[in-house]
Specification:
15 helices, alpha/beta, about 45% helix, four-stranded antiparallel β-sheet, binds adenosine-5'-triphosphate, 2 domains, six-stranded mixed β-sheet, Rossmann fold, about 350 residues
Length: about 350
């Protein structure tokens, strides 16, 4: 694949937080219609990679292109407009808004507003459960349902590439497997999916390909099937247990993994507890809950102003939602850049 193709191409991307090199010369690709998994231990740089692709973290070097368009210098909302959607760790949905309102907010980009009704139909087709729940306040839903709202909201931006950061985190095995099944359905629509997951077995179970990210570097790349059956990968990411249902492959990927990389992963998995999740809002150094609450209040105030006892018509509502959200995104991005600068200055 090269930059002229339709998918996501990340080439030689490096990112540092002050002196800490979080990503070192990382190159990955995601083609339309495939699911690609990034596996890595805590702190390997998985969230940093997604945040960098999404335009939330500045890179030192390297390039990212989506559908052949280089995103160099793009702000986060411009990256969304070029066809990429991120479902952050922790979902980031608007808890006090209904399912329907969350979906509407997902279509704030100009190109997405044009396709809003088409995308909404697609979301309800993928998640029929959300139709009956469309008036339900999002925070009252189960974790799995909220994850579906988060994925649905991301799909409302009509992306070509969908990125998800730990979508199964905090879900029961049953709900997690529902989410993974859903991602298979999303792939059938032709989207490319980049998935960061700690649940290696289930994510490799639905993926086409995978990469191993070790302390900021890609140390292996192979088909999901080969990764699933490779002894070194199983040892590092799947608890080392052999499983009858795992297919045998002729070319174990172990040969492609450096011994220090495997050992490093074993040690990290053995000795480290999960770090505090680093979602996009945390990377930005802002409290997303406050940010969202202010946005919701602002939006509700505009709906309930004395001169306006009814909610505006759909078109007005979309315009207001769009401008309020553009404003929020601009502030969010500014905070992210400020936090990154402060972090660099401290080191
Ligand atoms: P996890 O699975 O625990 O979420 P991860 O693989 O997603 O980890 P990142 O969150 O990308 O890893 O973090 C990579 C490294 O960069 C870690 O050592 C982390 O502490 C560091 N890091 C992440 N964000 C920042 C930041 N804003 N400032 C300084 N260091 C950071």
């Amino acid at each position: 694949m090269n930059n002229s193709t339709q998918g996501l191409v990340v080439q030689n991307v490096s990112v540092a937080y002050g002196k800490h090199q979080a990503l070192d010369n990382v190159s990955i690709e995601v083609e339309p219609g495939e699911i690609v998994v990034i596996l890595g231990a805590n702190g390997a740089g998985k969230s940093s990679l997604l945040s960098t692709i999404a335009g939330l973290v500045e890179r030192q070097s390297g390039s990212v292109s989506i559908g052949g368009v280089a995103t160099s210098g793009f702000r986060a909302h411009q990256v969304v407009s070029s066809g990429l959607a991120l479902v952050p760790e922790g979902r980031g949905i608007f808890g006090d808004l209904s399912v329907e309102e969350n979906l509407t907010l997902g279509a704030h980009a100009a190109h997405a507003r044009v396709r809003e009704s088409e995308q909404r139909d697609l979301v309800y087709q993928l998640f029929p459960k959300l139709i009956e729940r469309r008036q339900q306040i999002a925070r009252t839903m189960s974790g799995g349902e909220q994850q579906m709202v988060a994925i649905g909201r991301a799909l409302m931006s009509a992306p070509d590439i969908l990125m998800l950061d730990e979508p199964s985190l905090g879900l029961s095995p049953l709900l997690a497997s529902e989410v993974f099944k859903t991602l298979k359905k999303v792939r059938e629509t032709g989207l490319g999916i980049l998935l960061v997951e700690q649940n290696a077995k289930q994510s490799l179970g639905i993926a086409d390909r995978g990469y191993l990210l070790e302390t900021g570097r890609i140390t292996a790349e192979d088909s999901a099937q080969n990764l699933l059956s490779d002894p070194a990968v199983r040892q590092a990411y799947l608890g080392g247990s052999a499983s009858a249902e795992v297919p045998k492959t002729e070319q174990p990927v172990a040969a492609k993994l450096s011994a220090p990389a495997v050992e490093n992963t074993r040690q990290r998995l053995a000795g480290l507890d999960r770090q505090t999740p680093q979602s996009a809002d945390q990377l930005a150094g802002v409290n997303l809950a406050d940010w969202v609450r202010n946005a919701e209040l602002k939006q509700r105030e505009s709906w309930l102003s004395p001169t306006q006892t009814e909610r505006p018509k759909a078109t007005d509502s979309q315009t207001q939602t769009g401008s309020a959200l553009d404003d929020m995104l601009a502030r969010f991005e500014q905070s992210a850049r400020q936090a990154a600068n402060e972090s660099s200055e401290q080191r």
